[in-house]
Amino acid sequence: MHSKIFQITKTRVNKDNYLNEDTLAQGDGSFFDYCAEIDDEQRKEHIEYLVNHILPKGMFELISDDTIRYNGGAEQWRADFVADIRRKAEAVTPDSVQDWIGPVYQLEKFLKNPLDTAYWFYLDEEGLQSYAEQSYEFLRQVCEFEPGTLLYIGGVIDYHF
Length: 161
Fold this sequence. Notes:
Layout: E1 2-9, E2 34-37, H1 40-54, E3 60-64, E4 67-70, H2 74-90, H3 103-112, E5 120-122, H4 135-142, E6 150-160
Parallel strand pairs: 1-5
Antiparallel strand pairs: 1-6, 2-6, 3-4, 4-6
């Protein structure tokens, strides 16, 4: 299966530091089988999809092809996230605790990826980090931003898993 990884930072990233197909660990021992560049049209489509369909509704707005604005909403997201954690934890029982894809697995997945998306996030401005993260780490950082904070999209790459 294929999806995308987005480099998102608080400062505009120099093109030399964009996430690219060689930035991340790939192959044996990595979640990613391989990574590949995408064209500008695909990049634009996936950025629009990220902002308009994946990220929490109303929290972000697309300002330009590579800039999004955080509009606020972290308090509501945190409250919803905690409520969802509690709901999922209630499904864990002594009888279900060892189910292969049961409630423990579902809770673990949710904690790492509350947006339930195959999109991943690369938060390094320097392009030196060798890994991307699922949606929790991105949202955790967003909760520290003031409304109106601009975020910049650097590299966007395809990955296969």
